[in-house]
Amino acid sequence: MSAREVHDALHGWAARLVSLGAIVVTRLRPGVTWAQAQDLAHEHGYDLTEEVAALWTWRDGVGARPGQPSAHFAPGQDFASLDASLRHSREYLRASQAEVRAGTAVGTPWQPHWVVAVHGHAMPLVLDGSRPGPDTFRHDPAADPLVVAHSTLPQRIARWHDMLDTGTWRVARDGTWDVDLSHLTQSAHTPRTDVT
User: Which residues, 6 or more positions from 64, have their beta carbon under 8 angstroms from its beta carbon?
Assistant: First the structure.
């Protein structure tokens, strides 16, 4: 999966959000350059691939507006700048390494090649820089890594489109997210190919 394919999927997501009146699109910051992404990665001790950096070379997170509600990239999912995401990733790594040293680690420890894509719910969405795609998953330290759902970033974005299609996610009149879990389907997910 190339950075261009990641950008195309993100452009499709943003266009969908514009058509629905989501306020988040008005708060997306311009993307960083590849050189800026490499510099930030170096500052944080991260070996960043172009595929992983593609999220932030597309847009560098969502800016805050004082006195206004938070704008989420998807329901409950905060899209931070590359600098903040790499900082959070290193904080998770240091905490995980401390738990391993103390013998208190439970489940899957944070890996040095993982970077937080978005903070959401109780678990961050992680980009795994060691796997092509880039591979994404929700990090649940207590879960068996073999049962955690993995997908490329464009596949995950296609799933976000599905959540809108089923009515599980909606953009409310004020431009914020509304979630109705009664619309979740019981059938297995079939990846969409028409939006990426």
Answer: 27, 70
**What is the rounded distance in angstroms from the CA atom of residue 8 to the CA atom of residue 152?**
13
pTM for the predicted model, two decimal places: 0.86
- Mean pLDDT across the stretch 77-84? 92
If you count them, how many residues does the chain have? Answer: 196
186/34 Cα distance (integer angstroms): 41
121-144 residue pLDDT tens = 668 889 988 866 678 888 877 766
Count helices and strands in the chain by DSSP H and E runs:
5, 9
DSSP code, position 121: T
* Cβ atoms 12, 196 nearer than 8 A: yes
> pLDDT band at residue 19, thresholds of 50, 70 and 90?
very high
**Is residue 167 within 8 Å of 179, Cβ to Cβ?**
no
Q: Which of 129, 139, 150, 145 is nearest to 55 (CA)?
A: 129
Task: Name the CA radius of gyration of the chain, rounded.
Answer: 17
Helix (H, G, I), strand (E, B) or coil at 78: strand
